[in-house]
Amino acid sequence: MEAVRTYFRTIWRALSSIAIGMSVTIRHLLTPAVTVQYPDVKLKMPERARNRLYVNIDDCIGCDQCSLACPVDCITIETVKSTPDQDLGTTSTGHKKRLHVPLFDIDIAKCCYCGLCVYPCPTECIVMTDVYEFSEFDRHNLIYHFSSMSPDQIEAAQAKLKKAEEEAAAKKATAAAAAEAKQKSEQPKQG
User: Fold this and answer.
1) 83 within some domain
2) Do 51 and 45 touch, CB atoms closer than 8 A?
3) How many CA atoms lie within 13 A of 64 on its CB side?
4) The pTM is what?
5) Residue 129: inside a domain, yes or no?
């Protein structure tokens, strides 16, 4: 008798388990789907989402603060001083530009999207965008070059700086020689 009772209890458990599973299936079958068809439909990113970096190179003063703040060294900046006769203009925030920025590269493959480079920038030229789709087949395509200077412009700026430094050194040497000559002429002659 106990064996028959166990047999029917097992059948009842199996049928109730199937009924529970089918009720979940039917409930989901009748509700509308909430699946986002990703390539065609994209969800709006939150306002403070941290994604790809963008640099407005026209506002960059070459201060290197973003590169110093980066914990993974994914930002590479090189600068060339401008000569006193050059006017590089001002940024949108009113800072006077004193340096050429021939190289401003960000290696997004190394970036950890921490946002630490954004906050120290005095001109607010580096920002995190809402672009999150930037996969590439080649890792070298993940190095973004933001500098707008051509190789000829870089070479001209470096040559102009070198010439200005040579002229300043020549003026300094002439002034030192004149001061030394003046000092010798003012010393009393010992005889």
Assistant:
1) yes
2) yes
3) 11
4) 0.69
5) yes
What is the tally of structural domains in the chain? 1
Domain CATH for 130 = 3.30.70.3270
> Worst-scoring range by mean pLDDT, 13-17, 27-31, 72-76, 114-118?
27-31
126-128 vs 53-55, strand pairing mode: antiparallel
User: Rounded CA gap, 162 and 158, in Å?
Assistant: 6
The tens digit of pLDDT for each residue in 85-113 reads 888 888 888 888 889 999 999 999 999 99
Q: Is 31 part of a structural domain of the chain? A: no
Instruction: State pLDDT tens for residues 125-153.
Output: 999 988 888 888 999 999 999 998 888 98
CA distance linking residue 50 with residue 7, whole number of Å:
60
Instruction: Find the domain containing 115 and state its range.
Output: 57-151
Beta strands in 98-142 (DSSP E): 99-107, 126-128
Does residue 191 surpass a pLDDT of 80?
Answer: no
Sign of the Cα torsion 38, 42, 43, 49 reads: positive
Classify residue 171: in a domain, yes or no. no
Contact present, 96 and 59 (Cβ < 8 Å): no
Judge residue 13's burial from the number of C-beta atoms within 10 Å of its C-beta, 0-12 exposed, 13-18 middle, 19 or more buried: exposed
Task: Find tokens 């106990």 and name the residue.
Answer: 2
